[in-house]
Design goal:
By secondary structure, this protein is of the alpha/beta class. It has 17 helices and 6 strands. A 6-stranded mixed sheet has the order 2-1-3-6-4-5, with helices on both faces. Helix 5 runs antiparallel to helix 6 and helix 7 packs antiparallel against helix 8. The protein is elongated.
Length: about 400
C-alpha cells in the first residue's frame, strides 16, 4: 500500500522545514530593499552585533519576538527618525498578536516617510473597520445616518469575530509557533459569488474564516492564527498577499465559495499555484471568475518590487513555494475529505492571481459553490458551516503537525 501524504511528511519526505520560512522571509526583505537588515551570509551574522537593526531582524527571524521588540524600542528611543526600525517594530508587534502597537509603529514610520505605500497598506489592514451596524430607526441605507440592515450571517460573523479577538493575544513564547493566515475572500462592495437565494460569497467566506480560526484557537495547540479581514471590508490582492509577509505565514489559506457557469460543479476543491501543466476545467472556471473580481478591486502597488527585483521574487520564490503549497493541499485534502458536500473535489493547479501574489505556501479553498443548489443549501445552514469549519480546522492542524511539528495536540 502506498504511503499517504501524511505518512510521507512524517517520514521527512518533502517536509517544508521551519528554516525555509526564515530563509524565504530574509530573501524577500533583502530584495525589497532591506539588504542591510536581513542579509543571509555568515558575515551578516557576525556583523549583527555591530548593527542593531540586523540583530533585531535576526531575533525576529528566530521567533524571539519579545526580545526583538525590546531591542527595537531601544533603537527607536535613541533614533526617533529611524523609519526601518519602526517598520520592523510594527512587524514584531503584528507577529506577536498585538495589532494596536503594531499600527502605532507603522503610523510613526509613515510620519517619517509618507510615500511608503507598502507600509501604508499594512497600516490600513491593521486598522480595518468592523461590520456596519443596523440602520438607525426611520432611515434607509444610503440616507444620512442610515445603513443597510446586517444579515443574519453578518451578525453571526460579528459574534464570532468578537469571540476570536477576546481569545487572541495568547501566543506562546519560545522559538515561534506555526503561523497560519486565513484569508476570507472578497468583502465590502466586492460580494463575490451570489447564490439563487441571495447568499453572498463574501459573507460565507468571512463566517467560515472566523469559525475555522475559533476552532483552531479552541484546540489550544499553540498555533498562531491571523486573519486578513475580520469584518466586511474590501482588500486588494496586494493587501491580502501583504498579510502573509506581515505575519510571517507558514501557510496561507484563502476561503471562497465561487459561482461558476457549470452549476454541476460541487464540493470542496483545493487549488495551488499553477505549475508547468495546464488547468482542468474547474480550475480554469474558478480562476476566470475570481481573477475578474480581483482585478476590479483597486489597491496599493507592492512597494519595492519593480523590474528585475520583481522578476527575481516571482521566479525564485514561486519555484520554492509551488511545491510546498501542493504538499500542504494534498495533506488538507486527505484530512478534510469531502466535508458536508455530496460532490467530490480534489487538488489542482490554478492560475489564480492571489496565489501568484502570495510569497508563502498558499492554498485557495473553494468551500463549495454557490452556483450549485445543494452546496448553497449547505453553506446557508449555520450548523453545516460550523461542521465544515471544524473539518477544515482539523485538517490544518494535522497538516501543520505533519509538516514540522510546530503545532501539537
Amino acid at each position: 500500500m502506498p504511503m499517504s501524504d501524511i505518512a510521507k511528511f512524517q517520514a521527512g519526505k518533502g517536509t517544508p522545514a521551519a528554516p525555509c520560512r526564515a530563509n524565504r522571509r530574509r530573501f524577500l526583505i533583502r530584495l525589497a530593499g532591506f539588504a542591510a537588515v536581513a542579509a543571509l551570509s555568515p558575515l551578516s551574522l557576525s556583523l549583527a552585533a555591530a548593527d542593531p537593526l540586523a540583530a533585531a531582524q535576526h531575533l525576529l527571524d528566530a521567533g524571539k519576538v519579545e526580545e526583538a521588540v525590546a531591542s527595537l524600542r531601544r533603537i527607536t528611543a535613541a533614533d526617533p527618525r529611524n523609519e526601518r526600525a519602526f517598520i520592523l517594530l510594527g512587524r514584531a508587534f503584528a507577529q506577536s498578536g498585538k495589532p494596536a502597537p503594531a499600527l502605532a509603529a507603522f503610523r510613526e514610520a509613515l510620519r517619517i516617510n509618507p510615500a511608503d505605500t507598502y507600509t501604508r497598506m499594512l497600516a490600513d489592514i491593521l486598522a480595518q473597520r468592523p461590520i456596519p451596524d443596523e440602520p438607525v430607526t426611520g432611515t434607509k441605507y444610503g440616507e444620512k445616518g442610515g445603513r443597510r440592515s446586517a444579515s443574519r450571517l453578518e451578525k453571526t460573523a460579528r459574534a464570532e469575530r468578537e469571540a476570536f479577538v477576546a481569545g487572541n493575544g495568547r501566543l506562546p513564547p519560545g522559538a515561534g509557533p506555526f503561523r497560519l493566515v486565513i484569508d476570507a475572500g472578497h468583502g465590502g462592495p466586492d460580494v463575490g459569488g451570489v447564490g439563487a437565494s441571495g447568499l453572498q460569497e463574501k459573507d460565507v467566506a468571512l463566517d467560515l474564516a472566523l469559525l475555522t480560526a475559533r476552532e483552531i484557537q479552541g484546540a489550544d495547540t499553540g498555533m498562531a492564527v491571523f486573519l486578513t479581514r475580520m469584518s466586511d471590508i474590501r482588500l486588494s490582492t496586494a493587501a491580502r498577499a501583504a498579510c502573509a509577509d506581515l505575519y510571517a505565514a507558514d501557510l496561507f489559506v484563502s476561503l471562497h465559495a465561487p459561482s461558476v457557469e457549470d452549476a454541476a460543479v460541487s464540493g470542496l476543491h483545493l487549488f495551488t499555484r499553477q505549475g508547468g501543466g495546464g488547468q482542468d476545467a474547474v480550475a480554469k472556471a474558478v480562476a476566470g471568475f475570481e481573477n475578474r473580481l480581483a482585478g476590479a478591486v483597486p489597491g496599493f502597488p507592492r512597494a519595492g518590487l519593480h523590474g528585475v527585483e520583481a522578476g527575481l521574487v516571482r521566479e525564485g520564490v514561486a519555484r520554492r513555494q509551488t511545491g510546498y503549497s501542493a504538499r500542504y493541499a494534498a495533506l488538507l485534502a486527505e484530512s478534510v475529505g469531502g466535508g458536508p458536500f455530496s460532490g467530490k473535489g480534489g487538488v489542482a493547479g490554478a492560475g489564480l492571481s492571489l496565489l501568484n501574489a502570495v510569497d508563502a505556501p498558499a492554498v485557495f479553498a473553494a468551500m463549495g459553490f454557490l452556483s450549485n443548489a445543494k452546496d448553497a443549501a449547505v453553506l446557508a445552514d449555520a450548523d453545516r458551516r460550523r461542521e465544515l469549519a471544524a473539518s477544515l480546522a482539523r485538517a490544518i492542524l494535522s497538516a501543520a503537525r505533519a509538516a514540522n511539528g510546530k503545532a501539537s495536540g
